Structure formats: structure tokens, C-alpha cells
Amino acid sequence: MAIQFILLLSRQGKMRLSRWYQTVSQKEKAKITKELTTLILSRRTKMCSVLEYKEIKIVYRRYASLFFVTGIEQNDNELLALETMHRFVEHMDKHYGNVCELDIIFGFEQAYHILDELILDGYVHESSKKEVLRRVSQQDELENMDEFDNILT
Amino acid sequence: MASFQIQNSDVLARLKPFGISFEKSLHDLIKGIRSHSKESEESLSKFLNDAITECKNELLSTDLEIKAMAVLKLVYLEMYGFEMSWCNFQVLEVMSSNKFQQKRIGYLAAIQSFKNEQDLLILATNQFKKDLNSSNPTEIGLALSGIATIVTPNLSKDINDDVILKLNHSKPYIRKKAILAMYKIFLRFPESLKINFNKIIEKLDDSDTSVISATINVICEISKKNPNIFIKYLPKFFTILETTSNNWLIIRILKLFQSLSKVEPRMKKKICPTILSLMLKTHASSLIYECINCIVNGNMLSPDSSKDKETAKICVEQIMKFFETRDSNLKFVGLLSLISLIKLFPSLLHKVPNVSKTLMNCITDEDLIIKRKALEISQLLVTEDNIASIVQSLLVQLIPKDHSLVPDSFKLEITNKILFIASDDNYMNIPNFRWYVAVLSDLLNLTVIPSASGVLTSVDTADEISSKVGGELKILATRVPSSRHVLFEKIIIPLVQDEKVLKYCPMLLRDIYWIMGEYIEEIGASVSSLDVESPSDDEDTQSIAPLGRLVGIFNALVNHRIDTLLDLTSSQNFPISSLILDIDNPDVLSILVQALVKLFNSIVSAYSSLFVLNGRIQQDKASQLSYFLFKLIKFLENWERHLNYEVQERTTSWLEFLRLCLEAITDNDYSEIEILEKREVEYYKKLSSSSRIENTKGLSDETRSFIDEDESDENSVEEDEEESDEESDDSEEESEEESEEEIDEQNEQEGEEGLQEHNGTDLLEISNEEDETGPGAEENADFASSDSKGLMNIDETPISNANGDEIAPHDVNDISHFNQNNEYANENESTDFNNGYSELPALLTQVLPSFFKCYNLNPISKNAQRNIALPEDIPNDEIEDLQDITDDISVSGVEEDTYLDLLMKKEASYYPEVTSFHKDLMEGDAISTKKQQRLERMKYDPYYLASDTVEPKPNSRIKDLFKPNFAKSNSPDVLSGTPSIKSMDSLKGLEAHRKRKKSKRPVKERVLILSEETIGNESGDPRDTDAPSANKSTKAKRDPLKRGSTPFDSFLFNSSTDPMLQEGESNDSNDIDLEEMRRKLEKASVKKDKTKKSSKNGSHSKKTKSEKTSSSKKDKSQPDKADTLAEDSGVVTVKKSKKKKKSKAIIE
């Protein structure tokens, strides 16, 4: 059930977000990313979005100019992985308000926070859409409090 | 509180325009990266490096605000591949900030970058503890997220209790995070699971669904390693499954059931119906998919049960809905499920409508991934009726579409698949072998032999495909005698004369040359006797005499010398021949050397059957033969000093023999050869000059080059003569001259008689060479009959050539004869007075064929050699004296080729223990009697396959029926009459095939397929047993992406055991990992040992085993032979008949 990693790749092959739930060295990360980028970018839209890569399965889906890529275990449910990614996109869409690639580039820490509220260590821990966003905004409020304090002092 | 927060954010929004210092700095970084990446690589990397140094400086600051910002920037840069572990300490500092904003950044950085930093996390422990016990639930949540991601064995021990406490936190948000974090702690610190197992189970009754979901998640993960401990909670899981409507949760429970069902098969009864109803009720395809996965992967289906089959059928029907949606993802996962179901119940393939059609569609899908998946079970689709269409659609996949290349690996997959499909069940489904040969030919053309626009296959893949297909061709040639002819017509002959093969896939030639050499008679067989081809198909080949084709091929292969004599480097007349010299693969070359000699041998035998009357041959034919021999020798000399031992060895030994032959046939008189060569060279000179466009200028050039070349030509010939002169009498040349004059007179008288005769034969030859054989054949036509084109040149050259000593007068003589009739000239040379006839030396007519024609080569199973036990009655000295043995064999004339040496040596080294053991026993035995016995055995046992029980296979080839003199050396079996029956059979089959040819679908023909000779159980092959163990050891290496949950492998849950005791055992999960590894290694090595032992004992155990298997395989008609080892050798199985149309099993 565990997700091994989630990557967001732009159509040009640039990394927009990366979260690894395994201990992988930076060098290996770069290698895997590179191989996956060439693999995925070469596939056409009509083709299926599950690849077998080494010991794991890669499930990807394209949203606008971004490819959402996850690595899952061999006997995991590919459709569920697609669903998870869709959830993530939905959350971001709600949070940023009609999310676009630039939002994720400039607000990448926000995207990470949303991801952390959806997935914990590779497991989807909250299936409720509202709950995830509520938690994120709660934390944002907390941040703003700090900010406010900052300004006051 | 809430309203205050809103107010705050309003204030902040108003303040934003003034800019908050650190936010700006991050934006600057991102913007900078974006603008620089547009410029160039260098400017970007410079910018990034600057940014990093800037961050480093900022990290030195005491202001936590700036530090946090720098860390955040580094988190961003980490995405670009920059290591950030060097600032772990600063990250820790930021984590410990009182401000949530900074704390959040710190945790984010930690999650992104911490990797098992043992030392560092000792420092972090207190921070985690503090955050876990914070009054703010959000902070607790943050800490739990951090722990779940970065926990280490030491940390997990320290923090265990604090997280356990959080399992009972009032907020479900904390509880669910805590339980997931606990899983991570269990992984690092398995003791904790023993202690806290019940606390986890309690959470199944939590009021909040997401907590239950998280709990199931954890249980599901643990159950993958150790399902037994959860069996007793099955009812609880089941209730959750039935009460919840959350698909995420349901899918998780199904996953859990999958693991549980493997250890508790009884649960299937209760669960299966629920899953089925769930599947039929839901609309979520992910759930349907998971239901099927659960049923299949949970081993809930057994292939024997009809009820299970019903279940599988329902599943398949559900899957078929996936395919209707046209969603490629659904198609893919549907295919995955379908494959696993079909593997269990192959019959469903045809029972559920549209399944086979869908699979076929997937094979032709444009998505390579789907294609490949579907290919996996394509062999199950194959029936006798659709094999042609399936194989065809597989072949079509090799044709590149829309500029998208077919990957090499896919070419290989298709090749393997086609070969597998075809050869499955002893070629059961092949309708007829003509078709199959055509398929193989197409396969080669689509993979290794590039078409005009085609793209090259990489060398490695080409080699692999080549050897695969080549092996198959070899199998066909040996095992399916009736296919040999087609094989020759469609593949062997075209490919031998194809430059592309030489250029792109020389590996293929290894097998091609072998087949060519071994079954070269097939060329002749089509015409001389086996006139069974359907007339519509092979009209042209029928009218062609075999000799012409033989000579055509021979010339194409060895005539490189002509090109060098003509000094041609481009537009050569014999490109094949020159390319052959470039082959550097010793495997191919060593086969080729052999094949060339075999080819020559067949030419000799064709000559002797066509032209020999009463043991005598016309002199001109004899000199033609000697010319062929001369060319062969010259060509083989290219490898006389080859670097590879095998090639050199074969070449030199053949050369030795062939030179002897040449000496015998020419009596050291090479003038005939010179004439023939000169004529041939002239012909090609003419040929190339006529193709030139310039006329006058070209001519003068030509004449000049004529002279040059003639000189060089002569020089080389002279050298040859000098060499041979040393060995022979010097006086011979003189006597020759004398005799020539006499013969001249004689020729004139004789001329007219000879003329008619020769014209007859020449016509035959010329007619052969019109269409197929190209330049080589034309050449043949030239010197056989000297057509009018050639004459002009021949007239000129001798004159310009007048400086030659004894050749000159002779040549002058020739010219006059040429003008009348070419054949005169050829007879000039005859040294006896017997009307221009001479005898061919026995070296050529008897000895040479005897090298090749003693036994028909039988198909021997690949591993059969390995299974042979060393005969117990062979004393050790004999094995040491292997050289002796092989010598004996070659002297007795039964040796096939030098392979035997290798084989026998291999065999000997294979059983060193056994032999040394026997040495002790055998010492002092009368060795000479043993030797005698062995010789006795060897007489009938050319391949030394087994002990004397092996009966060599009778020769079934037709040619042997016509050449009884060769059969003399055969085993007595030949006389038994079986071969004729066999050949009759294939005749019948072909005839039957011809009759049915009209129907469009390739019709099943009756084909005789020789079974492979083997001894015993193939699986006993030590190679086979070695392979998996090797795999295991490589698998032991952990994949970096694999989750490390090994601790549960060995984890025996027993709540009653004293935790203290257990603690000592597994203090550190790192130790456990190590221990685990050691145990695995130990196991692997034990296994290896075992296999080694078994292979050592193999000779004995295998023997008994093989006796069993061979007797079980045994045909009932021969029960008396049941105890012989190599019984299979004599068994010829033909396809068993399903329908009446098909052939019946014929057992020899």
C-alpha cells in the first residue's frame, strides 16, 4: 500500500515537487528521476499510465502542464494510486484556488504541507477532503499568528 | 479565538504589500532560477552555486528568521539535486524554534533531507518529545509526521512510550497519525509490537473512521510479513468490511484479506461471496479491480474446482467491462487481472465471449506496455486453427509504425514468443512446415536483416535473435527431415548469398553454414529424385540441376581470389566472399571451414554421379574439379594463421588433406588450373569492362591492366608450382610438353565425338544458372562452355602472355581449339591415352565423403551430453589418454568433426571424482581387453552418446538409397528397411499436402518430427539447479526502493513471552537485519552446497532417475527395451492426431 515517492514533473522535465518515502541517496534520486522523465515524457496521451520500472510500478497522470508521478509496490492498486494523485490535485486546487504550475513553484512549501496532510509516510491517512484542507488552513493560521506577533514586536 | 485569527489574517493581508523580508528572498531565488535557466546551463549552475553559498552564509546568522529562510531555500534547491545533509544541525535548530512557522519549515526540511542520521537524531529526541507533549495538537501532528518519516532504531526506542500515549489522544487527528507513526516504530523496534499489540487492535474499535482506516493500514502492512497473528481477529475485520462504505477502507481490508487468506484457506468460503457481491454492487473500478486482486492473489481459486471457475468467470466478465471503456489505464489493469485469471483457467479464454478477441486487440495495441503484457499469455490463445493468424499479427508488430521504432528488446520478445508458440508441444500446432519456414524467414527479415529503410538492431540483440532463430533452424533441419528442402530454398540458399546477413548478423551464419554443410544434398534432392514439390510453387527450382547451384554457391563463397586478381576493391564480383574474410567470430568461422569442405564434397559427389562412367571421368571435368579444389585451398589459406585456435586447427588440418587431394588429382600439373583460372579472370574482366561506359579510353586501360594482372597471375601460379615441385619430380613438366603434342593430334580425331556429349551436359548446366545464382553461376557457365562473349578475351590474352615458359606453346594450341570448340582445350592435358578419361583419386571419391556420410545426424537433446554417466568400465588411464581415443575414432572414419574432441574432454572433466574413484577399483585390470571392447563399441557409436545400448539411427535420407556404396560403412540398421518406410511416409505427407494446398488456410500436413535424443530427466541438469540459487543470492540484495519490513519476517508473535527476555535478543533492529542477512546467506550457501552435491552424485542418481523417466516415456510397442537408457534415440514421434485429418503417431 505504501507509496514510494511522489514527483511532480513539468512537461520540460523540470522537477516541481519531490517527496521520497524511502531512504534514497541523492545520486540515486537523480538517476531514477532522469530515467523516469525520459520514460514518461516519451509516452503519448492515449497510452496507459502505468509503467513497470525495476521492482516497482510507476503510475503517472498528467494535469495540464504537470506530470504527477508516483512509485508504488508491485502488488498495489494502480487505480488507487491514480485516485490518490487526483485527491492531491483536488486539494491543491481548492487551497490555491484554481491551481496552476506557478502556484506550485512559488508556493512549494504549501504544496508539501497539503501532501503531508494527505499522505503520511507513504500511506494515505485522510480520505476526507474537508479534513485535509481544514488541517492545512489551521496550520496556516498558526503561522500567521507568528507573523502577527513578529510584526507587533 | 477563531475571530481573532481572522482579524489577524486581515491585518497580515494588509501588511503584505510592504513585503516580509524572508518571503521575498525565496521568491528571488525561484525567479532567479527561472530566468537563468532560460539563458544557459552555465549561468544557471553559477546562479545555483551562488545561491548555495548565500544560504551557507545566512545559516551562520544568529537570527532564527534568516536561518529558517535559508533552510527553506535549501529545501527548494534540494529538488535540483543539491545535497543538504550538511546543514542538518541548522535544520534541527529551526525545528526547535518556538514559532510554528519556523518549526514547520524545520520539520519540512527534516522530512526532505534526513536519512538515518543516527547521531543527529539523538539530539532531536528531546525536541520530538517536547513537541509530542505540546499543548497544541497541530504541533503534535507535525512531530508525528516527522517521526513517521525519519525515525531511527535508537530514536524509536526512546520515543516509543510518548507515541503510544498519543494513541489515546482526544483528537482523532492525533490518534491516526500516532498509529501510523507506530508502524514506523515497529519496523525499527519490533519489540514494541509485542508489547503494544493489543493497543493497536483496540484501535479497530475507534469511533473515527480515519483512525480505523489507519489501523487497518498498519495491520495490513504487518500481515504481509506475518499474517498468522491476525487470524483470530478476522471476524472483526469482516464486520468492519460489511459496515463501512468508505472505499479506501474497503480496499485496505481487501488487501489485508489477501495476505490472511494465504495462511487461512478456510476463510475463503465465508469471504468470497461477500467480495463477489461487493464487486457486483460497486461502480468504482478501483474497488472492482481490488476485489479481483484479492480473489486471485489470495489463492481463493483452485483450478480444479468448478465453483471457483464460476467465480473466475464472473470476474472475467467484470473485467471485460474495463475494456469497453476505452480507458487505457483500465485496459492495462484489466489485462493484468485477466492474465492472472486466464493463467488459472485457460479454458475461460474461449468460454467467455470476446476474451480472446480482446487479447488479440491488446497484442496489436499501439501502446507497447499493453502489447508486452498481452504477449505474455499469447501462447494460450494459440490453437491449431488460429496459429497462422496469431503469428502473423505478432510479426506485424515488428513493422515500425508512424516513425516509432520497435525497441530491440521487444523484437527479442516477439522472436522468443513466436519460437515458443511454434515449437510448443513438439510442433503440435504448426499447420505445415512450409508456412513455418516462411514465418522464420519473415522474422529474420523483420528483425536482424535490415530492410532498405529499416533501422538496425543493436549488435547484442541481433546476436541473440540470430542465435535463437539459428538454433530453431537447426532444430528444424535435424528434426523435421521433410522441411529441409523448403528450408534450403527459402532460407539457407538465399541467406548464404546475402551480403546483409554477413554485415549485420554474422551469428546467424553459424547455424546457416552448419545446415548448409550438413544437408547440402537437399539441393540435389529437389531435382534428382524427390520431385514432390507442388508444381505451381517451385517450377523454376525444379528444372535446375543441383550441380549448377552447388557451384554457384561455392563460387559465391570462395571466389574472392578472382576479385583480388582483378584488383577490384569496389563493385566486386564476389562481395560475399570478401565479406566472409572479414568475419571475426571464431564460432562462425570454424563452422564455415567445415561447411566449405562439405560443399566441395557435394560438388565432387555430384560430378562423380553425373560424369563418372565405369569409374572414369572426362578429363575436362576432372580438371574443373581440381580447379574448384584449388580455389578452395586458396580460400582456406586465408585462415591458416588465424588467431583463434579452433579455426586455425580446422583450417590447417583440412588444408593438409585437401592439398593431398589436389596433388593426387593433378599429379602436380597445375597448367589446367591456370588455364581455367585465367579464363575465369578474363571473363570477369570482360564483365566489368563491358559495364564501363567509357569506350576507347577504357579499352586501352583494360589492355594495360590485362597484362599487369596476367603477370601477377602467373607469378602466383608459378609460386604454387615451385612449392609442389619440391615434392614431385622435376621431369614431369617436360614429359608433359611431349605428351601435349601427341594429344593435340589425338584431340582432333576425338573432337567430334566429345563435342556432342559435352554440349549435352553443358546445356544442362547453363540452363541452371539463368535465374537464380547470379554472377557465380554465370561464371560457371563461362568456363564450362566458353560462350561467345568470353572467347574474345581469351583469344587476346595468351598472346600478350607469351613470356610464360612452358605455358605459352600450350596456350597457342589452345586458341585454335577454342575457336572450334572449347572442350578441346580442356582435354589437351590428359596424360593417358584413354580417350580423355581419367580416374578420380580415391582420396576425393572415397575418403572425403567418408568424413561426412557415415551416419545421419540425429537430433540430440541439448543437455543429453551432461546426463551421460561415465561408463563404469572405462579405466582412468583411458580418459587421460583421450587423445588416443579420438585418434582411433577419426581413423575408423566415424568421427563427425572435431567437436567430438571437445565434447569428450568436457565429459571427462565433468566427472573427475567418479573417475578417480574408479581408478582405485580398476587398477591392475587388463587394459588392453578394455580397449578392445571400447573399440568394439565405438564402431557403432559415432557420437559416443552412451554405452553400447545406444543404437545409432538409421540413415533416412534418400540419397543413401541411391548411393549404396556409402551405406556400406553404415550400421546394420540401415538394412532393416525402416528408413525407406520413413521416407515413404514423408513422401505421402507431402503429397497429401499438395492435394490440400488449394484451401486458403495452411493445412495441416503429416510431418515426421524426430524426437530429441535424451537421457533421463532434463531437469536434473545441474545448470538448471544452479541458476535459481544464483538468482536467490542476487535477490538478497535489497532494492533501495523496497520497504524495510524484514524484522517481521522472523517475528513470532507470542504475547506471553517475557518481554525482557526478548529485549536481549533484539536490542537493535539493525542487529536483527544483520542476523537476518546472515541467515539468508547461510541458507543460500547450504542450498548451493546441496545442488553441488547433487550434481556430483548426479551420475548415479540421474541414471536411476532417467531410467524411470525413459521407461515411462517408452512406447508400448517396445516394452522389451524398456531398460535401455537412450531408448528415446530410436523413437520418432509424429504429431498425435486430434482430428482425422492430422497425422498419426508413428513410432519407429
Number of beta strands of chain A: 7
Order of adjacent strands in the largest pleated sheet of chain A: 2-1-5-4-3
Total DSSP helices of chain B: 58
Could you give the order of strands across the largest sheet of chain B? 1-2
**Low-pLDDT residue spans of chain B:** 1-6, 15-22, 526-544, 693-834, 882-924, 944-1002, 1016-1047, 1049-1072, 1092-1148
Task: Please write the CATH class name of chain A.
Answer: Alpha Beta
Q: Quaternary state, please?
A: heterodimer
Radius of gyration of chain B: 41 Å
* Mean pLDDT rating of chain B: 68
CATH-level-2 architecture of chain A? 2-Layer Sandwich
Overall mean confidence score, pLDDT of chain A: 87
Poorly predicted residue ranges of chain A: none
Helix content of chain A: 40-55%
- Helical percentage of chain B: 55-70%
Classification by helices and strands of chain A: alpha+beta
Count of helical regions of chain A: 5
Largest beta sheet of chain B, briefly? 2 strands, antiparallel
N-to-C CA distance of chain A: 47 Å
According to DSSP, the number of beta strands of chain B is 4
Protein name (chain A): AP complex subunit sigma
Keywords (chain A): Cytoplasmic vesicle, Golgi apparatus, Membrane, Protein transport, Transport
GO molecular function, one term (chain A): clathrin adaptor activity
Subcellular location (chain A): Cytoplasmic vesicle, Clathrin-coated vesicle membrane; Golgi apparatus
